[in-house]
Amino acid sequence: MEYRYGADPARVRQMNNQELRDSFVFSGLFRPGALKLGHSEIDRAIVGGAVPLKDGIDLPVVKEIAAGFFCERREIGVVNIGGEGSIGVDGAGFEMENRDSLYIGRGSRDIRFFSKDPSNPAKFYLVSYPAHAAYPCKRVRRDEANILHLGSQERCNVRTIFQSIRPGIVETCQVVLGFTQLATGSIWNTMPPHTHRRRSEIYMYFDLPEAERVFHIMGEPGEIRTIVMADGEAVASPSWSMHCGAGTSAYTFVWSMGGENQEFDDMDAVKLEALG
Fold this sequence. Notes:
Blueprint: E1 2-4, H1 9-13, H2 17-24, E2 25-26, E3 35-40, E4 45-50, E5 57-58, E6 74-80, E7 85-89, E8 92-96, E9 101-104, E10 111-115, E11 124-130, E12 138-140, E13 146-150, E14 159-165, E15 176-182, E16 188-195, E17 199-206, E18 214-220, E19 223-229, E20 234-237, E21 242-247, E22 252-259, E23 268-269
Parallel strand pairs: 1-3
Antiparallel strand pairs: 2-20, 3-4, 4-11, 5-10, 6-9, 6-11, 7-8, 7-10, 9-12, 13-14, 14-15, 15-22, 16-21, 16-23, 17-20, 17-22, 18-19, 18-21
């Protein structure tokens, strides 16, 4: 499991491009036939990717979290961004089509990922945070999410937000998760940019052509920094950092949050004229 230790605002002001990536970015998450995990010091979040082929992939016991099994003291949110698959949790099976989400509660022991067709494998993206209570596992189909249509063509940010794991749909300790899909011709996400001091956030960009990139903007509003993101890469955003992005083509991204509250609208907007 790779570690990312984050940085405070003063350190981020002095970082070069590689140092920013070393502190906040997770790459290589989706390798055929493998599972990869990464740990962020920010709110002790763990992200991962599993791409099962002919055989299933078990979620392993990770010695670094000092637990008898992965979810002994953790909960997980999962999104399938690939072909059809399924997830087994303690003998229960959850069929997972593209864009379906699954909440896995604290205390779940045996977790395994499967693809229906190895030639078109499922790609499971997972986000985990510490949990103080055990809640039931629940699958959320794409059309069962809370769906918001935002943006305008004039501002190049027409987008659809799917709030999959959130209060009112799934009961969790702290994880909130969903995805945002940009319309063709739109490139800007998360406008206006904002911070939320009560929770951190992780973006994972996908549906991005191989040669295209997203310019992820982070840092203090008056000292912004840019990280260039490729398809399948995730970037952690500290609670003090603003976050938004613009792509060289349309794309989709999974957003996930952990922290003191679960209110999607709890954010402090940043005026564009304050950026520098």
